[in-house]
Amino acid sequence: MTITCNGEPVAVAAATVADLLERRLGDPRPAGVAVAVNEEVVPRGDWPVRRLAEGDVVEVVTAVQGG
Amino acid sequence: MSTRVDALVVAGETLSSRLFLGTGGLPNVALVGPVLEAARPALVTVSVRRTSSLAEGGLLAALRACGVRLLPNTAGCLSAREAVLTAELAREALGTDWVKLEVIGDERSLLPDAVELLDAAEQLVGRGFVVLPYTTDDPVLARRLADAGCAAVMPLGSPIGSGLGVLNPHAIAAVRAAVDVPVVLDAGVGTASDAALAMELGCDAVLAATAVTRADDPVAMASALRLGVEAGLLARSAGRIPRRSEARASSPVVGRIG
User: Fold this and answer.
1) Distances (CA, A) of B20 to B33, B34, B45, B207
2) A30 CA to chain B: closest CA distance, Å?
3) pTM for the structure as a whole
């Protein structure tokens, strides 16, 4: 299926948010990271069970330098 | 003689200093430790951005190692909708309800969009955030933000990154007079005297980023801003002399020879 991750279309086999993080970041529970699916934050504890669907818009963010 | 002044309290929490520090523009992560040691900031701001590599987490690890309190911002957001989602993501990523709320009107001026800012502030307060909004030096908007439940207001001294200092001291003093919540001078600080002036005008704290991170010597400037904030606060509590249009001798007039 195809989802949009961080603004780009991505073909994924990932079933859950944790699967997606494992595939993109190499860690299913990365520290200091937050995820939103379709503009709703998915709490860290739900990452292993939150299933992704065709067309989902996913944001994966972390803290960077800022003023 | 007493030089003691009360600590700053925001949203019921006592902060360790009256300098907030931004990390944006720091040339390398190795400077984080020395700069924080020199500045001793109460809060350190970070942004939230899309990531595709955990290597980008080096900054967060360095900040955590210093034990500083983080204040995520919503920098770059152009609408209340974007800002609210960014704040929610920051809360989840960093485990803090505190947010420096920025909603800018355009990317050239980086000036706050008053309408979207107030909308976002109301929404975030309703969702349990401690909201510190970056705002203009308009006392009416500052009062509206405070009335909406913001824990502080953060008026700009001059545009973000400009280093022009406090361009309208009367407006900053008017903001101070308009609200009961802490006032944090945010944006425009270029050097220590700007920070001192902000404190003399009645601000409760100063936030600086570019002034430190893009200085030739960020560690030295971090110390200078800390001392500038302390000097300004002390000068304010000391009670400055009134300005006079004519000279007034400080040496005795009587007993002069000749």
Assistant:
1) 15, 15, 8, 4
2) 8
3) 0.92
- Given an 8 Å threshold on Cβ–Cβ distance, is A61 in contact with B26? no
Q: ipTM of the assembly?
A: 0.93
Q: For residue A64, list chain B residues with Cβ-Cβ distance below 8 A.
A: 46-49, 51, 56, 59
Q: Flag whether residue A38 sits within 8 Å of chain B, measured between CB atoms.
A: no
Could you tell me the CA-to-CA distances from B170 to A18, B174, B178, B200 in Å, in that order? 53, 6, 12, 12
Distance between B218 CA and the closest CA of chain A, angstroms = 15
Q: Is A66's CB within 8 Å of B88's CB?
A: no
Which residues are CB-contacts of B11 (< 8 A; sequence separation ≥ 6)?
B98, B130, B151, B152
A·B CB contacts under 8 A: 114
**d(Cα A11, Cα B194) in Å, to the nearest integer?**
52
The tens place of each residue's pLDDT in chain B, 258 residues long, gives 455 568 999 999 999 999 999 988 888 888 999 999 999 999 999 999 999 877 655 888 888 888 899 999 999 999 999 999 999 999 999 999 999 999 999 999 999 999 999 999 999 999 999 999 999 999 999 999 999 999 999 999 999 999 999 999 999 999 999 999 999 999 999 999 999 999 999 999 999 999 999 999 999 999 999 999 999 999 999 999 999 999 998 999 899 998
> Active-site residue numbers of B?
100
